[in-house]
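Q: Entry one of two.
A:
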Amino acid sequence: MTRDQLAAELLRISKLQLSDITRAVKNGEKSIALNEVVDLGRRLNRLADAVAGRPAPTPAAPAPGDQVPGGQVPGGQVLVEA
């Protein structure tokens, strides 16, 4: 990965996550904003591992009912209740 490719990927990740964080904060959804911050950290750690040549760990799938406040499960997926 070249320096320009790394810079482009960092910019893409940060813009996407910061947009989500900003929107959640403006809407008063603190738990969603915190989940987005955690997701940003995970993405940056995976990118750092890729650059360092380390294999990425396989994320554990959330268990059914493993929900955080705000209707999201770890990993940023939104749950829709019927």
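Q: Entry two of two.
A:
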Amino acid sequence: MSILRTALAAANIAKAVVRSPAVRAGVALAPVLLSPAVRAKAREAALSTAYDAGRMARAVVDKARSTGRPDRS
């Protein structure tokens, strides 16, 4: 699967999750239920996860470019 198709699939999954009523209810109640310390931990976890995902994506793209093989999708 090409990198573009993988990115589109991930975006579509994220879009579906965001539209979920359970996720929307959780996001709406989060400020009420979470303490500042828990919010800070959640923010840090989200940022570190995004950073790690970006690092992994860069590694995959760099490896694909270094092999010199065309995409087989």
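A: Comment on entry two: The helical segments are 3-19, 21-33, 36-67. Residues 50 and 56 are 10 Å apart (CA to CA).
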